[in-house]
Specification:
single chain, about 250 residues, alpha/beta, TIM Barrel, eight-stranded parallel barrel, about 40% helix, about 15% strand, globular, binds 1,3-dihydroxyacetonephosphate
Length: about 250
């Protein structure tokens, strides 16, 4: 059985007080046993949120990025060693905002994925096409290239530590959600690629999340699709009431 996952990506939002209140409001409510919640927190709050959720086995804390080197003269960066040392075991890699604003290439992401998995992390690997590519109907080839160049060098044992998040760029923060049928179509295609490059078993066990304007109003329908195993949620994860509803949308 694949894991059902509700992941929040807080991006560069919230003060420490807000982060504390939001985390408590999520962990104070009983989370359904079969749902895994992941909170993608800004780096300054990782220790805090980790401490607040320690006793809650259904909640994991994730970083939003990590450097590919273990340590060294990289001012402003965060290494996997630092994350391990505070008990963080998930990292979001390859978000479209990192790709676009920080020039992260498929090749760099390949290195990051490799280093993180070698060091025991679960990687939430983001992929997804811009509007222009969707309009030209080349979105499947585009996402296939992203996966091929950054993920498919992993062994099937390593791939078990990857969660794929399909986030069409045109749906991120725009209020425009991919329709459940569009999400299902792409998720099914991604799973077929895993089957082709690995095995049926590996493909059927890998969780594929949808991201892009997920809200309480559309989560149920999206998560109800056969190959949609949950969501990576931006804006709606910043509000306890809406994220708690999304957690209960499976
Ligand atoms: P929104 O849910 O705000 O569209 O953001 C999605 C996202 O980028 C999650 O990583």
């Amino acid at each position: 059985m694949r894991r059902k996952i509700a992941a929040g990506n807080w991006k560069m939002n919230l003060t420490e007080t807000e982060a504390r209140e939001l985390t408590s409001a999520i962990s104070d409510k009983k989370i359904p046993n079969d749902v895994t919640v992941i909170l993608g927190c800004p780096a300054p709050y990782l220790s805090l949120t980790q401490a607040l959720t320690k006793s809650n086995k259904n909640i994991h804390i994730s970083a939003q990025n990590a450097h590919q080197e273990s340590k060294g003269a990289y001012t402003g960066e965060i290494s996997h060693n630092m994350l391990s040392s505070i008990g963080v075991d998930h990292v979001i890699i390859g978000h479209s905002e990192r790709r676009e604003y920080f020039n992260e290439s498929n090749n760099l992401l390949k290195k990051k994925v490799e280093v993180l998995i070698e060091n025991g992390f679960q990687v939430i690997f983001c992929c997804g096409e811009p509007l222009k590519v969707r309009k030209s109907k080349k979105h499947k080839a585009y996402v296939e290239k992203q996966l091929k160049e950054s993920l498919f060098h992993l062994s099937s044992t390593q791939l078990k530590n990857v969660i794929i998040a399909y986030e069409p760029i045109w749906a991120i923060g725009t209020g425009v959600t991919a329709s459940p049928a569009q999400a299902q179509d792409m998720h099914k295609y991604i799973r077929s690629l895993i089957r082709k490059n690995y095995t049926q078993k590996t493909a059927s066990e890998l969780s594929i999340l949808y991201g892009g304007s997920v809200k309480p109003a559309n989560a149920k329908e999206l998560f109800g699709k056969q190959d949609v195993d949950g969501g990576l949620v931006g804006g709606a994860s910043l509000n306890a009431e809406s994220f708690n509803k999304i957690i209960r949308s499976f």
